[in-house]
Amino acid sequence: MEIDPRVRLRHLKTFIEVARSASLGKAAVRLNVSQPAVSKTLSELEEMLGARLIARGRGGATLTPVGRMFHSYASASLAALSQGIEGVAETLAASQLRLTIGALPSVAARIVPDAAIEMARTAPEAGLTIVSGPNAYLLSQLASGALDLVIGRLGQPEAMAGFSFAQLYSERVSLVVRPGHPLLSAADPALIAAYPLIFPDADAAIRTIAERYFIAHGLTRRRDRIETVVDSFGRAYVRKTDAVWFISSGVVALDVADGMLAELPVDMAETLGPVGLTMRGEGDPSPALRLFIAAIRATVAAHGLAR
Fold it and tell me: CA-CA distance, 259 to 226, in Å (whole number)?
C-alpha cells in the first residue's frame, strides 16, 4: 500500500508532540503554533488515515488503541529520518565527503568532468580525487579500498568477483587517425594493416575487443605496433604520423568534434561494450558516493548516452 502523498512531516511531528504532551495546548506551545492549528493538523491526519488517533477531552489528549499503534511507527520513522540528517551533518563536519574515483580514460575525458561540475553544484563541500589507468589496475585499487568507485567498461568475469556492476551506457571502439589521412577516403578495414598501429596493451579493458576485431577482419599482427593506453601519447603520435589508433570512442570524442582527430568511416558496431559503475559488493554507498553517482547518471543522461 502506498503512503498517502498528502501526509506531511508536520502531521507526524504534531501527532507525536500531542502524544508526548498529552495536551493540544502544550503541544502548540512547543511547536510554536496556535492550538487551533494543532487541532486542524491532527484532524487532517486522522481524515487521511481514516481512523481516530487522539481522544480529546477535559482531561487532556490521549492516544486511542489505533493511535498507540500508529505512534510506534511514526516515532520510529521520525527517529530514522533524524539519524539520517545527523549522519549527513556528521559526514560534512568530519570532511568525509572526499571521494577517490577511478575512471578509464574514455570516461575520464567524456563523463567525469561534467559530473564533477554537477557535484560541485549540488555538494560544494565535497572533494574529488580522480585516478585513471588500465582497468585491471583500477579494479585492484577498488578491491583494496583505495578507490570508492570505478567508472568504466565491464571487467572480465574472473576480475569481477566481489564487485557489483551497474550499466550506464554502451560504448564502441573507434579507429582514429589524423585529419587528411589516406584511409579516410578508403574505408576498408583490410588496409589498416599497412599503417603503423597504436593498440591497447594487455591490461586494457578493450584489449580483447581489439584482438577479436583484428581476427574477424583477417588483419595480421604487426611486430612494430605500439601497445599503450596512454591517451596523451596517442593523441600526439597520431597527429604526427599515419598511425591508426584503436581506442574507446569516449577518449577522443572531443578531439574528433574539434577536428583535431578523425574517425575512420568503418562499421564498429561489433565493438560495443557496457560502460558502468563498479563498486565493492559489501555495504551501502556513503552519502557522498550517492551524490556523485547521481551526478554521473545526470551527466550520462545529459549527453544522451543512457541506455
Answer: 24
Determine contact, residues 105/251, Cβ cutoff 8 Å. yes
Range of the domain at 55: 9-93
Stated pTM of the model: 0.62
Q: How many domains does the chain have?
A: 3
Q: What is the pLDDT of residue 87?
A: 67
| Distance in angstroms (rounded) separating the CA atoms of residues 238 and 228 | 13
- Residue 192 DSSP code: G
Residue 56's pLDDT is 85
Query: Which residues sit opposite 275 in a β-bridge?
Result: 153, 169
Residue finishing a domain among 58, 93, 128: 93
- 136 in Cβ contact with 166 (< 8 Å): no
pLDDT, residue 95, reads 46
Reduce the DSSP state of residue 165 to 3 states and report it.
strand
Q: Crossing angle for the helix pair 249-257 and 231-240, nearest 10 degrees?
A: 50
Residues 6+ apart with CB under 8 A from 222: 193, 196, 197
Q: Which residues of the chain have pLDDT under 50?
A: 94-95
Residue 96 confidence (pLDDT):
56
